[in-house]
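Section 5.1 Outputs to date
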Amino acid sequence: MTYARAERAALCDLLDRLGPDAPTLCAGWTTADLAAHLVLRERRLDAAPGIAVKPLAGYTASVQQRIKTGRSYPELVDTVRQGPPRWSPYGLVPAVDMLVNMLEFLVHHEDVRRAAPGWEPRELPAGLNETVWKRLSTGAPFMLRKAPVGVVMRLPDGRKAGGKKAEPRVVVTGEPMELLLFAFGRQEHARLTYEGDQAAVERLRAADLGV
């Protein structure tokens, strides 16, 4: 089983356990909203662009709401668990599943886990940690393009990935999963340390870094 499929299964197991009304880190979304979002992005290609393109967001939101209310919560979760249909880009090209869905499901799994009190970071397999770090290393300039200051991401072992090149610069240190959450705009829910000018650190921690 690929990491992407393993995270999909683990997230669906958690959604099943928590039910439709549990909170998530996605502002205003319950677990039912998150499940509907995941169904939309893989099965409603007409509405998926609005996830990233603000002028289309209204249509996307209306489709997502119809998906949420148009079927039971167990059916929603089961649809996510089944994976993308074969006609979807995620289904047609297996590499796309690993390339895109691995990070998507890792982050959304933590969106559900870390919305509950008392959470602790998971201990991820070494291979998954390395895979996440490689993705961060290559994707950091794009992921951190909206950062208000310069950013360098650093692992506890000292390895670094350049993000946005600007001054002042902040060095953000953490495990790969924590840095991934940071890059996806979950700064306040990631275990990280920040080094740099205090005002720059505060601006970075408050910035909208969502990919």
